[in-house]
Amino acid sequence: MLKIKNVQKSFGDIIALSEVSFDVDDGEFVFITGPSGAGKTTLIRLILREILPDQGEIWLDETDITKLKVNAVPEFRQQVGVVFQDFKVLPEQTLRENIEIALAVINLQKAQWNERVEQVMDLVGLADRADLFPAQLSGGELQRTSLARALVVDPKIILADEPTGNLDWETADAMMELFEKINKKGKTIVMATHHKGIVDKMKKKVIRLGKGKIKKSENESDKKESTKDEKIKK
């Protein structure tokens, strides 16, 4: 599904990422964690092809997106759903209209819009909010709108950059339950977050970044602990 190979990225003298490599399998839910400045958002922007690495490869299925021509990038992005911390909804558009914008971008026939929008609004629990404007919605509802907009194009992968950063714990917890539900339906999710409570509770694969490098993954930690236990038993 997604392969990151020896990716490096610098901004001037600041090394944002250095020799980062990992794989994400189809249907997997992966957390990218680390303190502010660790490189989480840079990595999300690279996968979305907003910026290019100085070195390395980024593969989505059979395509190295670092080699895409500029005019091919919009088509590639139709395969990726994105959920941001600050929602990025249009204030002058209703919830329904905000979701429909994503369908307009991929040039889906209007005859198919209503069914798709109704499905995702039901999934995220906003069917009764369809005609409200962003100013009439809570933070949690705005984030659900953002998620619905990401889902409506039926993406191969969902990228989420600190999606609970502006939410209280109870709302964030409910939002993560929704991400879990979507993942169980088969969607691949890569989420950048520094929220340790969420990461610990969800018990998913974890890629830990520190100063632009991978420190260790949760799987590696588990293997080490398992090896220690075996030695003790012997």
Question: Biggest β-sheet, characterized?
Answer: 6 strands, mixed
What is the averaged pLDDT score?
A: 90
The shape is: globular
The number of strands is 10
Can you give the helix content as a percent range?
A: 25-40%
Number of helices: 8
Query: Strands of the largest sheet, in order across it?
Result: 6-7-8-3-9-10
- Low-pLDDT runs: 218-234
Question: Ends: how far apart?
Answer: 39 Å
What is the H/E order? EEEHEEHEHHHEHEHEEH
Word description of this protein:
This protein is of the alpha/beta class and 234 residues long. It has helices at residues 40-47, 73-77, 95-105, 113-123, 139-151, 169-184, 196-202, 218-233, and strands spanning 2-11, 14-24, 29-33, 55-60, 63-64, 80-84, 157-161, 188-192, 205-210, 213-217. The strands form two sheets. The protein has a six-stranded mixed β-sheet, sandwiched between helices. A four-stranded antiparallel β-sheet has the order 2-1-4-5, with helices on one face. Helix 3 (95-105) runs parallel beside helix 5 (139-151) and helix 4 crosses helix 5 (139-151). The longest helix is centred in the C-terminal third of the chain and has 16 residues, at 169-184.
List the helices and strands and how they pair.
Elements: E1 2-11, E2 14-24, E3 29-33, H1 40-47, E4 55-60, E5 63-64, H2 73-77, E6 80-84, H3 95-105, H4 113-123, H5 139-151, E7 157-161, H6 169-184, E8 188-192, H7 196-202, E9 205-210, E10 213-217, H8 218-233
